[in-house]
Amino acid sequence: MTGGSGRRYNARTPHGGSAAVQSPLYRHVISQITQKLESGEWRSGETIPSEPRLAQQFHVSVGTIRKAIDELVAGQILVRHQGRGTFVSTHSEDHYRYHFFHIVDADGTKRFPAVELHAFRRGRADGSEAAKLGLKRGAPVIRVVNLLRLDDDPVVLDRITIAAQQFPGLTRAIFVARPGTIYHLYQERYGVSVIRAVERLRAVTADGATGKALGVRAGDPLLEIERVAYTYRDRPVELRVSQVNTGHHAYLSELGKGA
After folding, report:
1. I want to staple 224 with a disulfide (CB 3.0 to 4.6 A). Which of 84, 152, 178, 204 is the partner?
2. Annotated region Disordered: where (predicted)?
3. According to DSSP H, which parts of 111-207 are helical?
C-alpha cells in the first residue's frame, strides 16, 4: 500500500477475504483511524497526531490523510480547531443539542432541556428491543424513563433501553450523578461513543401514564420518535422512544450545510 489519494487497494471483507471491488485509499485510512478511536487509543477530547505524522504512520500521502480527516470531521467524529489541531469529538451539551436534540420552540429556538429521571430498572429484552439492539431475546437490559422540560413545561417523555453488558456497573446513582449528557456518560465512563442515530417518526395518541406525565389528556395526539443510536462499525448502543407534546413545540431537522 503506497502514496497518493487516488490510489486504490483491495478491500478486505469482514471474514478476512479479498473483496471483488476496490475502495479509495482514504477509506482504508478512515478504517484505520476508526480502529484507534474504537480501541480508546485516542480518547474523546484528545488531539490526534498531525497530518504529516499520520501520513508517515499509515504510509500514505498527506493529501490522503487530509481527505480521510475531512470526512470524519463532516461526520462529527473529529473536530478541527484552528491553530490547535484536530480533536476527537466530545458529547458536550452543545454537541448534543445541535446534533441529537431536534425539539424547538414554535419560533424555532432550540434550548437544552431540564431532565427528570422517572424510572431506572433492570429487565430482559423483549423481541423488539433485542432486534434493534442486536441482542438475544431475554438478554439483560437497563430501562430508563426521563421527562424533559423546556421552560418548566413537560414536553418529551423518553423511554430508553440499553444492553446491561455494554455498561457494566451502571447504577441509578451513577446515572443521576452524571456531569453531562447521557451520551457523555456512555463516552467518558464506558468508552462508548455515539456517532450517529437513525430516527423514525410517527403520530400516536397518549395513553394514561404518558398523558399524565406530559400534562395532556389520554387520546391526545403526540409525536413519537424512535431512535437507535450507533457507535463505530454500526454497533447499536441505545434504543430511545420519545413521545413529544407538540402543542407549543416542533421537530426541526436541518439538512445540508449553509454556504
Report:
1. 204
2. 1-21
3. 127-133, 172-176, 182-190
